[in-house]
Amino acid sequence: MPTPTALELLWGTQQRPKRGPKPALSVERIVAEAVALADAEGLANLSMQRLAERLGFTKMSLYRYIPGKAELVALMVDTALGAPPQISGSAPGEEPWRDQLGVWCETLYQRFSDHPWSLEVSVGVRPIGPNEMAWMESALGALAETGLTHAERLDAIVLLTGHARSLVQQVRGLDAEAFEKQIAQQFAEMVAAAADRYPAAAAAFAEEGAAAGGEGALRFGIERILDGLAVLIARRR
Questions:
Q1: Among 14, 93, 117, 148, which is most buried by a count of CB atoms within 10 Å?
Q2: How many whole angstroms from its chain centre is CA 110?
Q3: pLDDT band for position 219 (cuts 50, 70, 90)
């Protein structure tokens, strides 16, 4: 039987033997264990050998299901991303698309936060799986009645995705609240030592509740992106 490609594994289109004993392993089990290993120790520490040891099998036995690490990582990204949020209704006074995209971006931020290793392998030209396509479909569907062109809707997704990704990269290794406290304290101490040289920074961090990054920045950025889209949508109408 020919070796399955990453796309065939992602979409379940590879040919499978119709007869024979029940497989001792499954692609789903291998990928789930790989995600757990990467979450705990980082992608750099993931190897087919280590994964096989965790599963209690030989490395060669894994290759019967997944031909290599590149294909494994493609499956891991789609599994870690999971299905997009199911959104029903909208906040009072808001248009449905705005509430839907807000939840969409916040959930994406959380998925990347739960699996930060996925940031480095979910860029560039690569195989795209059904979960990732479902996220795109969900966001495009939210914008379907806005009057934006297809290109503009895709660009809106790029903006929101980039915002979520960049903030996860900033707070990587810390929870959002701890990051905000530490960064605010660090910058406040630095500018206090030279407030005359950096008066704008000193004033910013002297304000109660001031912070850079974290969930406050996430929500602020989402709202400003959606504000801009709202202006464009109003113009189209």
A1: 117
A2: 7
A3: very high
- Write the single-letter amino acid at 219: R
Dump pLDDT digits (tens) for 93-115: 568 999 999 999 999 999 999 99
What's the one-letter identity of residue 122? S
User: Do residue 74 and residue 122 come from a single domain?
Assistant: no
Q: CB burial class (10 A; 0-12, 13-18, 19+) of residue 38?
A: buried
Question: CB–CB of 117/42 below 8 Å?
Answer: yes
The total domain count for the chain is 2
89 backbone φψ class: left, alpha, beta (φ>0; ψ -120 to 50): left
Give me the domain span that covers residue 27.
6-81
